[in-house]
Amino acid sequence: MRTTVGIVGAGPAGLLLARLLHNAGIDSVVLESRDRAYVEQRQRAGILEQGTVDVLRAAGAGERMDREGLRHDGIELRFDGRRHRVDFPALTGGRSVTVYAQTEVCKDLIALQLEEGGPLLFGAEALAVEDAGTDRPRVRFRYEGREDVLDCDYVVGCDGFWGVARQAVPAGLSRVFERTYPFGWLGVLADVPPSHDELVYARHERGFALLSMRSPEVSRLYLQVPQGATAEEWEDEAIWDELERRLETRDDWRLRRGPITSKSVTPMRSHVHEPMRYGRLFLAGDAAHIVPPTGAKGLNLAVGDVVTLARALTHEKETGSAALLDAYSETCLRRVWQAERFSYDMTTLLHSDPGASPFDGRIQLARLERIAGTRAAETDLAEGYTGFPLDEAVRRHGPADGAAPAGAEGAVRAAKGRAGHPGRRRA
Ligand code: RFL
Ligand code: PHB
Q1: 305 in a structural domain
Q2: Is the confidence at residue 393, as pLDDT, over 70?
Q3: In 227-373, which ranges are E strands?
């Protein structure tokens, strides 16, 4: 089999990249090791930055998101029994975020790809990326019990943290920056209307808690748990009791309980692989970097990577210049490190570290007081949460001649494709 761009992995990064390339008239093949139902049901992210929403819409993948997504203009920080609302539009010049689950983004992109795009093979496990340092990279994969080879002009590793693509970068060229945290998150879905109309991030001596949602009828909730804890050791009633304690307030706010329909534990880590490119292999999304979920940044970073890459591949196709491809890793890493910093700050601000001293606890409260009481500190949080610009580095270095313009306008134009793909837009 042969294609221009071989994409390993059909998470949000791989699926959106395939869509953007389709809109730009560049063919691709997506290989996904799992089956369609698994990819469509894997519970993960819930928050889309404004830039992500704009890109999905411009790519023609925003119809259901515009109907069912919930616009959120703020979050609540809870500490010491107090409640403090961070008002995003007021602090950022009008920015907000959208609650629309990753499962739904993936369902929308899969349906579009199967209807209009190139091949998307489920149950196709990449075994290795080979010859990435040459003009003829290839992916060796297993499909329907047989081994096969996908010959490509470019390979993109969108295969997540546990994927194989990263291994094709020679060890001597890789640099890994990593931190693991001594706790994880127990996440549950519950058939009960959310107990608050915005997300609540709570700092408590017993540990962090987060109240989120999937729809007006379904709540998504998280509890900090010790490293190594399992979901099975948590009875449903114990989860609700613990959420109630950690989310408690001094006023009459009450947590609504309901049937828990799924529960799982996620470890917490920060991880960056540099560079994000080796020869004709590009890494995007969780394959290149992981953030702890406290900042709600992982999916949004993946979108930033593939927009940057789609624009660079389009530029190469139209002008023959590899300038933007050459800048890919550096362009992405600037934004990645800002998201790493923000996610680290949110994590250390809100979680109780088992090794922390009473002094550390007081410093945490002082940081929260500062955010609640100082516009500058609160603005910093609001800007970080609602998102960093998609291509600060392109703007700084200036795009090569003929490249799409930088900034939000460039990202949206890249998402539509050069022909101005008629992405269905909100009326
Ligand atoms: P994914 O989603 O992991 O997809 C990778 C895909 O590659 C496939 N694969 C292979 N395919 C073929 N051959 C192989 N050898 C393969 N190996 C793997 C996998 O089956 C999979 O389908 O990576 P991608 O596309 O980079 O997307 C990244 C996001 O999924 C991730 O960053 C977010 O979910 C992180 N995240 C959040 N991000 C946000 O922006 N906002 C949030 O609110 C948010 N909340 C979260 C989160 C992640 C969480 N967990 C579970 C880690 C909340 C949680 C609890
Ligand atoms: C979610 O709804 O799954 C969610 C929301 C915010 C986060 C992490 C996860 O920071």
Answers
A1: yes
A2: no
A3: 260-274, 277-278, 281-283, 289-290
User: Which range of residues forms the domain containing residue 157?
Assistant: 2-71+100-180+268-352+393-416
Instruction: Please answer whether residues 156 and 6 qualify as being in contact, where contact means their C-beta atoms are separated by less than 8 angstroms.
Output: yes
Inform me whether the pLDDT recorded for 67 exceeds 60: yes
CATH of the domain at 346: 3.50.50.60
Q: Where are the alpha helices (DSSP H) in 59-130?
A: 63-68, 88-92, 102-116
Q: Is 48 in the pocket of ligand 2 (CB under 6 A)?
A: no
Which of 53, 46, 33 has the alpha carbon at shortest distance from 307?
A: 53
160 lines ligand 2 (CB under 6 A): no
Q: Give the distance (Å) from ligand 1 centre to CA of residue 10.
A: 9
Q: By the 8 A CB rule, do 15 and 60 touch?
A: no
Rg (CA), the chain: 21
Q: How far is CA 32 from the centre of its chain?
A: 18
- The helix-helix angle for 407-416 and 50-58 (nearest 10°) equals 30
Q: Which atom of ligand 1 is nearest to the CA of 39?
A: 22
Could you tell me if residue 368 is inside a domain?
Answer: no
Q: CB neighbours (10 Å) of residue 321?
A: 15
Evaluate whether residue 89 is within a structural domain. no
- Per DSSP, helices labelled H in 216-297 are 236-246
Q: Is residue 336 part of a domain?
A: yes
pTM (2 d.p.): 0.93
Q: Which helix (H) or strand (E) holds 255?
A: none
What are the tens digits of pLDDT across the range 168-212? 999 999 999 999 999 999 999 999 999 999 999 999 999 999 999
> Cβ of 206: how many Cβ atoms within 10 Å?
12
Size (the chain), residues:
427
Query: 306: which 2 tokens?
Result: 């593939």
Contact 68 CB / ligand 1 (< 6 Å): no
12 is catalytic: no
Domain count within the chain:
1
First to last CA, the chain: 41
Across residues 221-242, what is the average pLDDT? 97
